[in-house]
Structure formats: C-alpha cells, structure tokens
Amino acid sequence: MDRPAHSGHPAGTRPGPRLNVWESLLFIVLLVLAGYVLFRSPLFAVQRLEVTGTRLLQPDQIRALAGINLGENIFQVNLGRARQRITLLPLVKTAVLSRVLPSTVRIQVTERTPLVLLEEGNVFAELDADGYYLQPGTVTTSG
Which domains, ranges and CATH numbers included, belong to the chain? Predict the structure, then answer.
C-alpha cells in the first residue's frame, strides 16, 4: 500500500516565499535611503524654470508669479498653487505646469487674445472672444 509522502506542512497549506527579518530590514533601509535621495539630493534641485506660450506677457513675469525658487526640491514644488497664482493674471487663459526631471519645471501658458476695445470717456477696456475683461487702459489727449 502506497502512502503519500509527508511534506511537513499542515494539510491544505503550501510553503510560500518567506521574508526573513534581515531582508525586511534591508528593504526598509533602502526605502528610507531612496526617499532621502529624492527629497534632499541636489540632483533634484530646480535649476531652470522654462516658460513657453507667452506673446504679450514676459516670461520673467510668469516665473516671478509662480513663486518657485531655484534650488527648491523639484518634488516639493506645489505645481497647483503656482498654477493658481499664474492664472490670476487677466491675460492668462490657462497654465500647465510639469516637472521635467531631474531639475526643470516647465510652465506652458495660453494667453487670452484681446479682440474688442471698448471706450468710455478716456478709459478703454480690452475684451477677449469669450467676453473676458482683460485690462483697463487710459488714453491721454493733448489739448
């Protein structure tokens, strides 16, 4: 009579991969080290703010409004907050910010296009195709 060989494991269980304590500890140390490299390494410090899409606005104006400092860690830059600040400018229709690793933040701006000039007295107002009020201006007349 043949008897099945005894595997040493309770019935219905199979041996699986077993992580020993040292492997687990090594994994945790590597995770902490990777986090340190990502958030503290000068390799990931912002060195360049690239602005595209401007015609009426100056790229330096967009950079200043973004509030992103050179040398700041690229992963700690709050792109959403920078986008909100940039879109406060009446001429900015949209702003898309992205990280270009290891050290560049790209700011892609879409400007509103002035289409209509309204006059009331000596004050002029520019509107875009959506009827969005862009900026006031005054005209002085020499008499």
Answer: 44-111 (3.10.20.310), 113-143 (no CATH)
